[in-house]
């Protein structure tokens, strides 16, 4: 049976070159980067080389990169750290209703500490309208966080436009670029953002590494207290092998971006084929979407059931972020986009990778109608 | 309270008195010992007699920096408490 992995938003395999880059730092050059002797210096060089590579991917300076344990930590650090560092200027924060849980839950926790947060609504295509951002800004707004691309529906946000509006009013801007990085160009200068989150394991790097870009000169309150690591902005001994791998993954991503057209072609072929099935709708924006992202509502089919049934055919897809409610299995993102609960639980997400082939897409298109048909025959949700 | 924290050290709190600095180093919210590491680095770059303004929110700096100054022979001109962080003014030793 063919094994087709189309859940690259959840995680990616570690690239061969990435693994090779990591290996020396697991055993031979295992030193603590804070030590001055040669073993420490080797590890320090690996961390700094990685910092340079991450910075190059997003057109930043190495000093603007803070390594974290994950994209989620980077989102936590950005939102909490910037809000707290600029608390004296104001306690009003703005985000969107469709952010990743690591962003949404940080904002919710800040609400409990007295901050006022606007969770902006989105359109049916999952877009945050810049005019809604402008309307929400008050004299006490200090931070806006809007993701560059959505994990579940692939929609790209007008971050550059939002940043321009925010900066005119003296408001800081953070964007979660975890879903976007490695799949499309991410340039902090062009976007004009003050902070940007990245993750290693969704771009062919290992799990356990992420990064926050923080514009030079900006203050941030740390989340993890220790000492000199990350210039006193994130404590804890650096995860040197993972960081080294992350750096290599960023270098590889720059090359992969040149082959993005191929990915778009495969994605469109998949979308075209899936939409031929009765009762299927594309979610997210038809054009302004990630090059590797195809997401649907398959009426009458529970997203989790479909994900499992497809895996029995060797097809690995997604159905939204992992923390959906167990009671109502509806995607909060789709609910925020205005879908009713009975449709918002029928989410199917296919995210392609660099290794995805035309043959694999054809295999999915051949199997999917059969699997959907079987599930609908036993589904109380299907009225067709 | 902060004055009490600095008791026994050579800290002179200044208020409304603007000390002109030749360089500024911002380590506000950076974790200890970044205030000493950056202080050492930046002082090396300055010329004799020049003044560094070091900004930090770390209260331990109220004892660390006077101690560092007395050990190294640099002069702590004064400290301003902005309410959010401290501004330390340090003149590089002349000889």
Walk me through what this model shows.
The complex is a heterodimer of chains A (384) and B (95). The two termini of chain A are 31 Å apart. In chain A, 39% of the residues lie in helices and 14% in strands. The model of chain A has no long low-confidence stretch (mean pLDDT 95). Chain A is built from 14 helices and 12 strands. Chain A folds into 2 domains: 4-12 and 259-377, Aspartate Aminotransferase, domain 1 (Alpha-Beta Complex), CATH 3.90.1150.10; 16-255, Aspartate Aminotransferase, domain 2, CATH 3.40.640. Chain A has helices at 16-22, 38-58, 71-85, 101-112, 130-136, 159-168, 188-191, 229-232, 240-256, 260-274, 303-311, 332-336, 341-344, 358-377; strands spanning 4-5, 65-68, 92-96, 116-120, 141-145, 172-176, 195-199, 210-214, 280-282, 293-298, 315-316, 347-351. Chain A has a 7-stranded mixed β-sheet with strand order 2-8-7-6-5-3-4, sandwiched between helices. Chain A has 384 residues and is an alpha/beta fold. In chain A, helix 10 runs parallel beside helix 14. Chain B has 95 residues and is an alpha+beta fold. Chain B has a single domain (2-91), classed as Translation Initiation Factor IF3 (2-Layer Sandwich), CATH 3.30.110.40. In chain B, 29% of the residues lie in helices and 24% in strands. Chain B contains 3 helices and 4 strands, in the order H-E-H-E-H-E-E. Chain B has helices at 2-5, 34-45, 61-72; strands spanning 23-26, 51-56, 75-81, 86-91. Chain B has a 4-stranded mixed β-sheet with strand order 1-2-4-3, with helices on one face. The longest helix of chain B has 12 residues, at 34-45. The relative contact order of chain B is 0.27. The model of chain B has no long low-confidence stretch (mean pLDDT 90). The A-B interface holds A 81, 85, 88, 217, 219-222, 225-228, 231-233, 235 and B 26-34, 37, 84.
């Amino acid at each position: 049976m063919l094994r087709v992995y189309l859940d690259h938003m959840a995680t990616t395999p570690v690239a061969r070159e990435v693994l090779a880059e990591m290996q020396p730092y697991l055993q031979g050059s295992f030193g603590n980067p804070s030590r001055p002797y040669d073993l420490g210096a080797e590890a320090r060089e690996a961390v700094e080389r990685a910092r340079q590579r991450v910075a190059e991917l997003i057109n930043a300076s190495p000093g603007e990169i803070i390594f974290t344990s994950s994209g989620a930590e980077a989102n936590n650090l950005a939102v909490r750290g910037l809000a707290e560092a600029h608390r004296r200027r104001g306690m009003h924060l703005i985000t969107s209703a469709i952010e990743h849980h690591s962003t949404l839950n940080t904002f919710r926790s800040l609400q409990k500490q007295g901050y006022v947060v606007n969770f902006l609504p989105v359109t049916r295509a999952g877009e945050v309208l810049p005019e809604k951002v402008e309307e929400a800004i008050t004299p006490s707004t200090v931070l806006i966080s809007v993701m560059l691309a959505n994990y579940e529906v692939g929609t790209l946000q007008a971050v550059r436009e939002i940043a321009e509006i925010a900066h005119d009013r003296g408001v800081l801007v953070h964007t979660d670029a975890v879903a976007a990085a490695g799949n499309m160009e991410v340039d902090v200068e062009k976007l004009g953002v003050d902070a940007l989150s990245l993750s290693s394991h969704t771009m062919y790097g290992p799990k356990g590494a992420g990064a926050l870009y923080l514009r030079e000169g900006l203050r941030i309150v740390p989340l993890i207290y220790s000492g000199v690591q990350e210039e006193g902005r994130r404590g804890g001994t650096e995860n040197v092998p993972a960081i080294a791998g992350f750096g290599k993954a960023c270098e590889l991503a720059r090359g992969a971006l040149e082959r993005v057209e191929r990915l778009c072609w495969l994605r469109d072929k998949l979308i075209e084929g899936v939409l031929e099935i009765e009762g299927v709708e594309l979610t997210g924006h038809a054009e302004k979407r990630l090059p590797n992202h195809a997401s649907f509502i398959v009426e009458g089919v529970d997203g989790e059931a479909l994900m499992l049934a497809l895996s029995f055919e060797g097809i690995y897809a997604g159905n939204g972020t992992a923390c959906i409610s167990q009671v109502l299995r509806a995607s909060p993102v789709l609910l925020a986009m205005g879908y009713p609960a009975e449709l918002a639980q029928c989410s199917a997400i296919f995210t392609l990778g660099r290794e995805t082939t035309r043959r694999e897409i054809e295999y999915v298109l051949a199997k999917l109608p059969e699997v959907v048909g079987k599930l609908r025959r036993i589904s109380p949700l299907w009225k067709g | 309270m902060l004055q009490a924290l600095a008791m026994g050290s050579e800290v002179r709190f200044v208020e409304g008195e603007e000390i002109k600095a030749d360089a500024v180093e911002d380590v506000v919210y950076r974790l200890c010992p970044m205030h000493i590491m950056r202080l050492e680095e930046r002082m090396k770059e300055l010329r004799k007699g020049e003044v560094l303004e070091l900004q930090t929110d770390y209260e331990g700096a109220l004892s660390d920096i006077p101690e560092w100054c007395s050990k190294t022979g640099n002069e702590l001109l004064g400290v301003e408490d902005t309410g959010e962080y401290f501004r330390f003014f340090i003149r590089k030793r002349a000889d």
